[in-house]
Amino acid sequence: MLAKLAAFQRWLKGMSKSLPSRVAPALLWIACTGGCAHAPAVIENSLGMKFVHVPRGEFLMGSEESVDSLASAFPAYGRERLADLTDESPMHRVRITQAFYLGQHEVTVGQFRRFLALSGHVPESVADGTGGYGYNPGYDPAASARGDTFQGRDPRYSWRNPGFVQDDDHPVVNVSWNDAVALARWLSGREGVTYRLPSEAEWEYACRAGTRTRYHAGDAPESLLGAAATFEQDTATRWPVWRAFALPGHDGHVFTAPVGRFAPNAFGLHDMHGNVWEWVADRYGERYYAQSPTDDPRGPDEGDRRVRRGGSWQSWPLYSRCAYRNWNTPASRYPLLGVRLLRESRPGER
Question: What is the DSSP letter of 215?
Fold first, then answer.
């Protein structure tokens, strides 16, 4: 039986080389879950969150892709938009010196609900009385003072209600950076091991999972189909004015998707692209890469903005790349914005 399994794994790996990039990762994952050397070590915590082992290593962080190259892949965007990505450079070598465990999935609605019930934490959108943001098909962004895509802040919207239906397996949204840090601190105290937000470098290292391409599934924007819930033809039905930026396919989800429905990357991590933006620990620095240390960079020491990574269910493919950087203030909450936690390794753990 074991010999047959090994032969099947070898066949899957061989087949993956000739298949589309959106299919190959799924086949490799099937091969590994049968017991190959690259199957991830997974730890489950008291809230039912699963964490995947990410080994220490080196990678090239950021991007120095030319406007011409980007324009070829993203012809609808316009050169001015493509030129406005200078905070991704210079590309620089980063060394992650300590292995860690990263959430296999984004924190879900059900997990966040259990955290609130056990900890007594009051989410910022409730505590300050201003609420969050939400999808309202009757809302006109042009009628708002800031032209926000979503309606808010409004007390009707929060992690419980982003204006669209979610169940307990969907990624929680309308979570501020402060809420995410509160969750990590509470888990650390409860379990006696350090939980925290990943650094921006740890996040990109984990997202790339050994690749050098725009996405962990490949360079082509279409490689996101099957690998991410992002802006495609289903979501474009709600924003038809942006259809030119939508992927030419369907992922079956207009809004968020249940976590883990798309193929993982080579580390076994799901939804690193799309579904929801993920808070990271670092303050944002537009020119930080030029002075970033090689070993375990942690971002600028000062600043009032925090980085978010990965894109969301409504993000155009350009903004879902491994290298793309965005930011918000720590009190921000939005129906595109969630969290993935890092669990530090205990001494002696793999």
Answer: B
Report the alpha-carbon distance of residue 11 to residue 15 in Å, rounded: 6
Residue with tokens 């609420």, as numbered in its chain: 131
Q: Specify whether the CB–CB gap between 54 and 102 falls below 8 A.
A: yes
Q: Count of alpha carbons within 13 Å of 44, Cβ hemisphere only? A: 3
User: Residue type at 176?
Assistant: S
| Sign of the Cα pseudo-torsion (337, 29, 263, 111, in order) | negative
pLDDT score of 146 more than 90 = no
Give the pTM.
Answer: 0.89
| Three-class SS state of 109 | helix
Q: What is the pLDDT of residue 29?
A: 38
- Distance (Å, rounded) from C-alpha 286 to C-alpha 307? 11
Q: Which residues pair with 249 in a beta bridge?
A: none
Inter-residue contact 258 to 172 (CB < 8 Å) = no
- How do strand 337-338 and strand 277-283 relate by DSSP bridges? parallel
